[in-house]
Amino acid sequence: MKNIKKNIAIAVACVCAVMGQVTAQEKRPHIEIRGIYGGVPVELLAEGKTLEDHGINGVFMGSGGLTAERIALLKKHGAKVFAEFNSMHVAGYLKEHPDAAPVGVDGKVCPPPQRWQGVCPTHLGYRKYRMDAFRKVLGDFEIDGIWLDYHHSHASWERAVPDMPDTCFCDRCIAEFEQETQTDLPDETSPELARLLLGKHKDEWVQWRCDVFTDWVREFRAIIDQTRPKALLGTFHCPWTDAEYEGALRNKLAIDLKAQAKYVDVFSIMPYHARFGHHTDPSWISRQTEWLGHYLSIKGEPGERHKIWPIVQLSDWGESVPVDQVRAVLDHGTRRPATGVMIFAWGSLRRQMEKVDEMSAFYQAIAP
Question: Were both Cys, which of 42, 170, 183, 218 would link to 103 (CB 3.0–4.6 Å)?
């Protein structure tokens, strides 16, 4: 009996392995973008090869790394070029503008959680600084889209155990909250007002904070429409559902996906399975993407206004991603409602070419 059970188990494992391989080799014409994130993959262009030879048709890089020469090279190889734009994480700004630092529940400047330094979202000087930079990127470079990054409150969530302090309770934020929500607050200290805003007035406070961040997205959209109207506006964002961590997506990070959908074209959920404690379960990727599609009514069908292009983890960050897991990660990252995918991140993968070979084989296999 034990041998029979053992043989059955082996047979089931073999069938599952074969099914997984078949799934990974299917053509997936719904996937518009087979991308990489993190720079120009010059190593893949050696010996006369093209990006098409590797199945790649999209490259995402930081806006500070854009040059006309790099863009021309990538477009010569048939790849679309997308810029990543740092929204709320330019820590250097605080050196000359300390009043832009987020204030915590104790009324003092909140230390950067896990060395992640955010900025107060109501600081007008910082907002103008970022909008001017955003406009310049779009004006200077012929990019196909620009993705917001770090567009959330002062927090460190890209880890298995997130660190999300409550902010910002500076005088400016509290005054704007009072005025814009027509809420009368008592003449109390900042700690006491923070207690009220996280208690009696929590619903109004959370919604107001979300609205502040959404209004930034509205302005980013307006700049695109004025400067490079054919460019896509994307956002890299937290992969949690609306219920995880007690609703932290809105309550802590101030990310209102449904409100931002009015302005955003592409949602690039960030389901870094290994980093977030799911290193043995790549299917977590497709579960999170499926939730996002349901939440935003995106099915991954032709003609939809909104798109979901996950960025999935192949690099070793926190937990390692083994070579034999690469295709499973990409398999789950390219299931509908996703219509595009990119890998994180070229900077380290260029030193792990065995993973790159697996990625290339997968991309080539699913290409129309």
Answer: 170
The dihedral formed by the CA atoms of 181, 185, 190 and 191, expressed in degrees to the nearest 10: -100
- Phi, psi values for residue 14, rounded to 5°: -65, -45
Q: Identity (one letter) of the amino acid at 97? A: H
Name the CA radius of gyration of the chain, rounded.
Answer: 22
Domain 29-366 class in CATH: alpha beta
Q: Look up residue 185 and give its two tokens.
A: 């607050």
pLDDT attached to residue 19: 39
Domain ranges of the chain: 29-366
| Contact call for residues 66 and 141 (beta carbons, < 8 A) | yes
Alpha-carbon distance of 53 to 40, in angstroms, equals: 15
φ/ψ of 319, rounded to 5, equals -75, 150
> Nearest 5°: phi and psi at 292?
-60, -45
Q: What is the pLDDT of residue 10?
A: 38
What are the tens digits of pLDDT across the range 281-306?
A: 999 999 999 999 999 999 999 999 99
- Looking at this protein, which amino acid is placed at residue 257? L
Collect all residues with Cβ–Cβ distance below 8 Å to 337 and sequence separation of at least 6.
289, 290, 292, 293, 298, 299, 300, 308
AA identity, residue 105 = V
User: What DSSP letter does each residue of 11-64 carry, written as one string?
Assistant: HHHHHHHHHHHHHHHS--TT--EEEEESS--GGGGGGG--TGGGT--EEEEEGG
* Residue 39 contacts residue 61 (beta carbons within 8 Å): yes
Torsion, Cα of 209, 210, 216, 218 (10° steps) = -140
pTM of this structure: 0.93
79: nearest Cα among 365, 353, 358, 340: 340
- Bond preceding residue 338 cis, omega within 30 of 0: no
Instruction: Look at residues 82, 20, 132, 110 and name the one whose alpha carbon lies nearest to residue 265.
Output: 82
How far, in Å, CA of 220 to CA of 145, rounded?
12
Residue 212, CB-side half-sphere exposure with 13 Å CA sphere: 28
CB atoms within 10 A of CB 197: 23
Of 71, 63, 68, 64, which is closest to residue 40 (Cα–Cα)? Answer: 71
